[in-house]
Automatic annotation (TrEMBL):
Organism, as annotated: Thiohalocapsa marina
Protein name as catalogued: ABC transporter permease
Chief location bin: membrane
Keywords associated with the record: Cell membrane, Membrane, Transmembrane, Transmembrane helix
Residue spans crossing the bilayer: 21-41, 270-301, 322-350, 362-384
Subcellular location, record wording: Cell membrane
GO CC aspect terms: plasma membrane
Domain MacB-like periplasmic core: 21-243
């Protein structure tokens, strides 16, 4: 039999039982769409997390108090800390030639009140370099002034949510607020883009690090953000930071230095593996669809016994009959896969139209993987019915038995 005759015969057989063919095609389509959609969800989550970490800054190192060898928890819960990470430690880190900027951070919770209104928010103590290290911008006014970081100046920069809660639509710049038991003057308001990694920078107040330490009566720092001079200098900067702190802490290696690349690489591997796992689970539906194709083809063989007998009586070989039924299975799987991929792209487009911060993203391998799995399932599960049809005795088959 010629290839055109095989394909034509398969198409006529499929259209002769339209309802059955459509239901089988839908099963394959939904399975393929599930693989692509779930893969796009995992890929979208991966890209979202990586973009959020990138917004923290570039060439970034995070210095946390405590040794990561002490306990198995995530920083900063790293076990006992022999010595606090102090502001003087942070300033000493600037001695490294591989370090460009250092932003020490002290954090606490305190009520912020003004004009009879009060709001409990996070108070973040830092220096002027924090603006550049974290790639933030100021909507009005200015950020913390540069100067002696050990001087407790009564200045504050607030987020827009906090500003609106305290002053409504009026400009807060130049107004005075009470934070805890101390008074501060607002000198700037952060831009609304200052939200990343769960820290709502729109609903906090930023004060000089020495002021925060005095406010919370805590000389220790929460962490230190260090910006290296380039990606190539990250490892050398990390070594310098450990050495500098070790020298200041009487030989104790009691800090953890995490590079931004290490964090990004860890999340990339975890979310990449999660995406593959989710896609693998979805691919099970394609195996189920392949079993459905097998059942449909077995029914087709039983209904077309006389037709197969006639073909063999006219000289069709076993491989010709096998090719005919395998082509039917291949066409069902192929058409279903194409429909499923199109459906998945349409679904991703519709979802992304209604999502602002988080977007689904279809990885390049997902449609290819869905197609290969669907076609393989169709051919593998179509093999048994095809072999059964090819082995029918022509005389017996012509009688319809």
């Amino acid at each position: 039999m010629r290839s055109g005759d095989v394909i034509g015969g398969a198409l006529r057989a499929l259209t002769a039982h339209g309802a059955r063919s459509w239901l089988t095609l839908l099963a394959v389509a939904f399975g393929s769409a599930a693989v692509v959609l779930l893969s796009s969800l995992g890929e979208g989550a991966r890209r979202y997390v990586l973009e959020e970490f990138t917004q923290l800054g570039t060439h970034l190192l995070i210095v946390l108090p405590g040794r990561n060898e002490t306990a198995g928890g995530a920083p900063p819960l790293l076990g006992e800390t022999p010595r606090d990470l102090t502001l003087q430690d942070a300033l000493a880190m600037l001695r490294s030639v591989h370090v460009q900027q250092v932003a020490p951070i002290a954090v606490g919770q305190a009520p912020v009140s003004a004009e009879g209104r009060e709001r409990e928010v996070t108070i973040l103590g830092t220096t002027a370099d924090f603006l550049d290290v974290r790639h933030l911008s100021v909507a009005s006014g200015r950020f913390l002034p540069s100067g002696d970081p050990e001087r407790a100046m009564p200045y504050a920069v607030v987020g827009q949510t906090l500003a609106e809660a305290l002053f409504g639509n009026a400009s807060p710049v130049g107004r005075r607020v009470r934070i805890g038991d101390r008074r501060f003057r607002i000198i700037g308001v952060l831009s609304s883009s200052g939200v990343s990694m769960g820290d709502n920078l729109a609903d906090l107040a930023i004060v000089p690090v020495a002021s925060a330490q005095a406010l919370f009566d805590n000389p220790g720092l929460f962490r230190v953000l260090v910006q290296a001079r380039g990606r190539q200098g990250l490892d050398r900067a990390a070594e310098d930071l450990r050495r500098i702190v070790r020298e200041r802490h009487e030989g104790e290696d009691d800090v953890t230095v995490i590079t931004q690349d290490a964090i990004l690489g860890t999340f990339d591997r975890i979310l990449g593996a999660l995406t593959l796992a989710v896609a693998g689970i979805a691919a099970i539906s394609l195996v189920v669809a392949g079993i459905l194709i097998m059942n449909v083809m077995l029914v087709s063989v039983s209904q077309r016994t006389a037709e197969v007998g006639l073909l063999k009586a006219l000289g069709a070989r076993q491989r010709d009959v096998m090719a005919l039924f395998l082509t039917e299975a291949f066409l069902l799987a192929g058409a279903g896969t194409v429909a499923g991929v199109v459906l998945a792209y349409l679904g991703v487009w519709l979802v992304n139209m209604h999502l602002q911060a988080f977007h689904l993203s279809i990885p390049l391998w997902a449609p290819l993987a869905a197609t290969l799995v669907a076609l393989a399932a169709g051919l593998v599960f179509g093999l048994l019915p095809a072999r059964r049809a090819s082995r029918l005795d022509p005389v017996t088959a012509l009688t319809g038995r």
